[in-house]
Design a protein that fits this description.
By secondary structure, this protein is of the alpha/beta class. It has six helices and twelve strands.
C-alpha cells in the first residue's frame, strides 16, 4: 500500500514538473500567447462578474509569473477594487511578477486606476528610435495642468516631480500616441514592490503579426526558454 502511495506521489511530482507554466490573460489577446508552451488562463469581465470568476482570477494570478491585461481604465478599476484580486496582485509583485497592460489603441488612455492603487510612483515614457522623423509630435503627455510634447527618439522622460513638466502627476494622467501602421509607439515601465514590474505598452498592433517578436521576448523574460507549439 505504501509502495503504491509512493509511486502515485512520485508520478504527481513528475507531472507537476512537466506541467505547462501558467499565464493570466484579461482581454482578447490570449491567442498571442498560445504558441509559447504556456497554459493560458483567459478572463473576460462584464458588468456582473461573479465571485467565482474573481476567485478563479486570484488563483490564476498566484500561479502566474506574467499577468496580461488588454483592457481599459473601467475594467482595471473593477479588477483593482476587488480586495482579493488586489491582495493577489500585491503578492504577485512582491514575488517578482510582471504585469503587462496592453493598450491596443492610438487614442488616450486614462490610467488613474494604476496610480490610485499604488502601482505607479515614478513614471517614465520612452519613444523608440525613429519616431521623430516628421514634423508632427509623436507623443503628448498631460497631467491635467500642463502639456509636454515628446518628440525625441529613444529618450526617457520622468513625469513626476522632477520630471519634464516639473510637477507630480495628480489624479488621472493620459498619454496620447500617434499610430503608425500597427507598430508599437511607446511604453511605460516601472519597477514596483519587490522585484515586480508594471509594463505598459501603447500600440496599434493588437491583432497584428508584428506583435509576435515582442510577445516572444516578453514570455522569455518571464519564463525562460519554453518549447513552442
Amino acid at each position: 500500500m505504501l509502495k503504491k502511495f509512493a509511486f502515485a506521489l512520485s508520478m504527481l511530482m513528475m507531472l507537476s514538473v512537466f506541467a505547462a507554466p501558467e499565464v493570466t490573460i484579461m482581454g482578447q489577446v490570449q491567442h498571442h500567447f498560445k504558441p509559447y508552451g504556456l497554459k493560458v488562463n483567459a478572463f473576460y469581465f462584464k458588468k456582473n462578474t461573479s465571485a467565482a470568476e474573481y476567485a478563479k482570477l486570484v488563483k490564476s494570478i498566484a500561479q502566474s509569473k506574467l499577468v496580461v491585461c488588454a483592457e481599459g481604465a473601467t475594467v482595471l478599476n473593477k479588477i483593482f477594487s476587488n480586495k482579493e484580486v488586489k491582495a493577489a496582485l500585491d503578492k504577485f509583485f512582491e514575488q517578482g511578477g510582471t504585469f503587462y497592460l496592453w493598450i491596443p489603441s492610438w487614442s488616450w488612455v486614462n490610467s488613474r486606476p494604476l496610480r490610485m492603487y499604488g502601482y505607479f510612483n515614478y513614471l517614465k515614457v520612452q519613444l523608440p528610435v525613429g519616431y521623430a522623423k516628421n514634423k508632427n509630435p509623436q507623443c503628448k503627455i498631460t497631467d491635467g495642468f500642463a502639456n509636454s510634447w515628446v518628440t525625441a527618439p529613444n529618450k526617457e522622460f520622468d513625469l513626476t516631480a522632477n520630471g519634464s513638466n516639473n510637477r507630480p502627476l495628480k489624479g488621472s494622467w493620459q498619454v496620447v500616441f500617434a499610430a503608425d501602421n500597427g507598430n508599437p509607439v511607446g511604453f511605460l515601465q516601472e519597477k514596483v514592490r519587490g522585484n515586480g514590474r508594471v509594463f505598459v505598452n501603447y500600440s496599434a498592433m493588437l491583432h497584428n503579426k508584428k506583435a509576435a517578436p515582442f510577445i516572444a521576448n516578453l514570455v522569455k523574460n518571464c519564463y525562460g526558454d519554453l518549447p513552442q507549439k
